[in-house]
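Final report, section 2: Outcomes. Of the targets proposed, SAM-dependent methyltransferase is the one most frequently requested by collaborating groups, and we therefore present its record in full.
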Amino acid sequence: MLAQASPWHTHALQRAAAGPVEPLAAPSRMEWATAPGLGPGAEILGHDLCRRRVLELGCGPGHNVAYLAAHRSARVTGVDLVGLQVRRAGSHYGRLAGAGFVAGHALHYLQASREQFDAIYSVFGAIGLVAPQLLLPAIAVRLRPGGALAFSVPHPRRAGRYPSTDNLPRRDYVTLPDRTRQPIARWEFDAERWTDHLTRAGLALTCVQELRDPHRTRFPTTLLIAARKD
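The predicted structure is given below as tokens.
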């Protein structure tokens, strides 16, 4: 019921109504931002991902899962709250060896799992949309020692906004394919506050990058953060 009531379910419905879902070729690059080609690729998760166990929290249509499975020979599971998105991802990429998709809440999946992962990542996915004081410690438990976490979130200073001064979520909006907007709750932290939450979860910061689309705005659009479990 939660998934069906969410803007993400509406987003998936509108995408599904736009046309048939067909098998796709795996993308040639892993993307961390809304515009292609910005920032690093998959190397932020590790230079050798062959046969490594990787988890995406909020996989959407599965493009990054497909890239990692097809081009980096990783064994990747994509988790998404919306079952329709998981079905779309499976229709796109379910034939790829090493790619799998599961419907479920990111936090619940982590809490129920007993598997250890070499890398966990989120691209405008669960991180930032689930309480970080709950989600980040759950991620740390599921990472192997030395395992990598990387995530991208909307930059807290995008379009002239300002980062949160507390640890509470803010009201934000998601733009649907039909260009309407629906409200969501999002944690809008700067790098310093994210670092504090990572440290409390037992994760050490390794990288912070601000990504911007030079054709759209003078403000940074994406905050990309990476950390490692000691």
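Helices lie at 2-5, 7-17, 63-71, 83-93, 106-112, 132-142, 191-200.
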